């Protein structure tokens, strides 16, 4: 059994440690922090004055299976974590409970890991440490200050205008990049004073990340809606061929799954923290505000889903109209060739007088001409039947307009004249 455990550890740590990003921070509980080396499980190497620590593992999106993700966590967190901790952190679905004396929460959604709409966040909380695992990078999660060369600390100017020496020209694509994000990365974070403050910061950045994804999806939806309104046949046909709105709806459902997991997990996390007396009243209010933000995000997801359904319904209606129009043209062509098919099916071509043949019988000379006259008569009869309603409506409109014109013209006529100072029956002259 020991040999099997050793071989499993070597096999799991051989090819996964290179692709896993790890971060470690030390906090003194007084508003100060330091970045430190990875010393998980080594209590003798902790910095002096450390009150609590934070260890974060960032799983790469290249690992598409739960087994590979669990192997990465085994390589990064074992020891001191046990197999039950690894399983609680790496499994899919919502979870919040106590495992081996620690409080573990998990909001891992299922789906392809290469999609940004598949998000995973799990954490293991104790009195003096926090261990978190995320799928891919979560912006603004690290603790850092604004760099001296950052755009955010400079005074910008618009491209093409006369700029002063102390201002820099911001390009259009850079401005679009920053406007597409609700939360700027290069900002100062409030340093947590306790373990629960740190967990609140982690959950807050996770919700901000979900809001950024939702904002980008909404901007893409606005752009596609504008293209749908202004585009022609080719644009609409391309949207139908690419299944644009169904794919956006699928991504939105994946994001909705992440938000729903958070709605289930974070209230339970708050209750379990209260039971252990780990947090203050302000920290409880902060967690409750985060839960309220998740409720608002869920409502926004519902609004976007309704918009996508309406746009897809409009595309389906347009496609039905195109199909009906093509069927109408096809029916019209079939009407044109219907007389010929009827006559040829009834009589065949056993008629005389067909051009470029050797038929010289005088009695059968006019047979082919009679067939053509019969086809033309049937065609005219069918066209008259189809055009009769429209022609009747047109004539009816003309007659109605003439009657209205006569009634209007007659109201201005004088119905009598003045003769010998006497007034005849009629209107008085104006």
UniProtKB/TrEMBL annotation:
It is found in: Membrane. InterPro entries: CorA_TM1_TM2, MgTranspt_CorA/ZnTranspt_ZntB. GO terms for cellular component: membrane. The keyword Iron does not apply. GO terms for molecular function: metal ion transmembrane transporter activity. The chain crosses the membrane at residues 327-351, 371-392. Keywords: Membrane, Transmembrane, Transmembrane helix. Gene3D superfamilies: Magnesium transport protein CorA, transmembrane region. SUPFAM superfamilies: Magnesium transport protein CorA, transmembrane region (SSF144083). PANTHER family: OS08G0130000 PROTEIN (PTHR47468:SF1). This is Uncharacterized protein.
């Amino acid at each position: 059994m020991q040999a099997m455990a050793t071989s499993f550890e070597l096999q799991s740590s051989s090819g996964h440690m290179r692709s896993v990003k790890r971060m470690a921070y030390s906090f003194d509980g007084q508003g100060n922090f330091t970045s430190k080396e990875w010393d998980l499980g080594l209590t003798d190497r902790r910095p002096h004055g450390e009150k609590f620590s934070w260890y974060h593992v960032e799983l790469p999106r290249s690992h598409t299976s739960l087994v590979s993700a669990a192997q990465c966590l085994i390589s990064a967190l074992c020891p001191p974590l046990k197999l039950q901790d690894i399983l609680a952190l790496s499994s899919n679905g919502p979870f919040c409970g106590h495992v081996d004396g620690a409080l573990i929460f998990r909001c891992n959604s299922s789906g392809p890991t290469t999609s940004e709409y598949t998000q995973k966040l799990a954490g293991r909380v104790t009195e003096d440490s926090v261990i978190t695992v995320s799928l891919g990078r979560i912006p603004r999660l690290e603790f850092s200050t604004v760099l001296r060369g950052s755009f955010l600390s400079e005074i910008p100017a618009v491209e093409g205008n006369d700029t002063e020496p102390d201002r820099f020209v911001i390009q259009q694509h850079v401005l679009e990049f920053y406007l597409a994000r609700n939360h700027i990365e290069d900002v100062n974070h409030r340093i947590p004073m306790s373990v629960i403050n740190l967990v609140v910061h982690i959950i807050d950045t996770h919700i901000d990340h979900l809001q950024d994804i939702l904002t980008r999806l909404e901007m893409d939806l606005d752009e596609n809606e504008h293209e749908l309104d202004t585009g022609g046949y080719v644009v609409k046909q391309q949207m139908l061929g690419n299944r644009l709105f169904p794919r956006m709806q699928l991504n939105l459902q994946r994001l909705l799954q992440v938000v729903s997991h958070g709605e289930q997990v974070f209230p339970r996390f708050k209750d379990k923290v209260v039971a252990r007396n780990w947090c203050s009243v302000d920290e409880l209010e902060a967690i409750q505000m985060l839960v309220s933000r998740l409720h608002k995000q869920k409502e926004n997801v519902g609004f976007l889903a309704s918009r996508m359904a309406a746009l897809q319904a409009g595309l389906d209606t347009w496609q039905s109209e195109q199909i009906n129009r093509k069927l109408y043209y096809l029916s019209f062509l079939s009407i044109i060739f219907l007389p010929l098919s009827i006559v040829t099916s009834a009589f065949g071509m056993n008629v005389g007088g067909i051009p470029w043949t050797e038929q010289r019988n005088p009695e059968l000379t006019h047979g082919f001409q009679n067939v053509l006259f019969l086809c033309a008569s049937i065609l005219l009869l069918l066209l008259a039947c189809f055009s009769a309603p429209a022609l009747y409506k047109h004539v009816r409109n003309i007659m109605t307009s003439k009657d209205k014109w006569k009634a209007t013209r007659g109201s201005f006529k004088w119905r009598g004249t003045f003769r010998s100072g006497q007034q005849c029956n009629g209107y008085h002259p104006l």
